[in-house]
Design brief:
With 46 residues, the chain is mainly α. It has one domain. Helices cover 65% and strands 0% of the residues. The protein contains two helices and no strands. The chain is elongated. It starts with 10 loop residues before the first helix and ends with a helix. The mean pLDDT is 87. This is Glutamate dehydrogenase, NAD-specific. InterPro entries: Glu/Leu/Phe/Val/Trp_DH_C, NAD(P)-bd_dom_sf. One of its GO terms (biological process) is amino acid metabolic process. It comes from human gut metagenome. Pfam families: ELFV_dehydrog (PF00208).
């Protein structure tokens, strides 16, 4: 794996971001608004 420059990380830690994005998606749908990728990134940074 080192030769291919792959990173190994615990699945729960890696999936945490996906869960957060899903929550943002649900909020967006509930409010019937659209966020750009940049807006989603900004919300994830906050």
């Amino acid at each position: 794996m080192e030769q291919k420059h792959l990173t190994v990380a615990p699945s729960k830690a890696v999936n945490a971001c996906g869960v957060s994005v899903s929550e943002l998606e649900m909020a967006q749908n509930a409010q019937r608004i659209y966020w750009t990728a940049e807006e989603v990134d900004a919300k994830m940074e906050a």
